[in-house]
Specification:
The protein is mainly alpha-helical. Helices cover about 70% and strands about 0% of the residues. The C terminus is likely disordered.
């Protein structure tokens, strides 16, 4: 069984921490993403579709959602 050395584990942990910070910065720069995901999750839980994949494809390709997302930016608990 291969095990990471202490040095490898330290580098891995540092890389993970950097990635989390970079992801957090990206999300702060794009609050519309949080709004869009929140809208999607609410709609999925409300409608509980049998075919979630098809539902997701239709939801994320619906051009009408853009206006709703931009309206909701800043109101879903994640602001820049």
């Amino acid at each position: 069984m291969d095990v990471l050395t202490t040095q490898q584990q330290d580098r891995l942990n540092q890389a993970k921490a950097r990635m989390r910070i970079e992801n957090e910065e990206y999300l702060r720069q794009h609050p519309e993403l949080q709004t869009f995901i929140s809208m999607f999750m609410s709609k999925v839980l409300d409608e509980q579709p049998d075919d979630v994949l098809t539902f997701a494809c239709e939801f994320f390709s619906n051009p009408e959602n853009e206006a709703a997302v931009m309206e909701g930016v800043g109101t879903v608990g994640f602001t820049a």
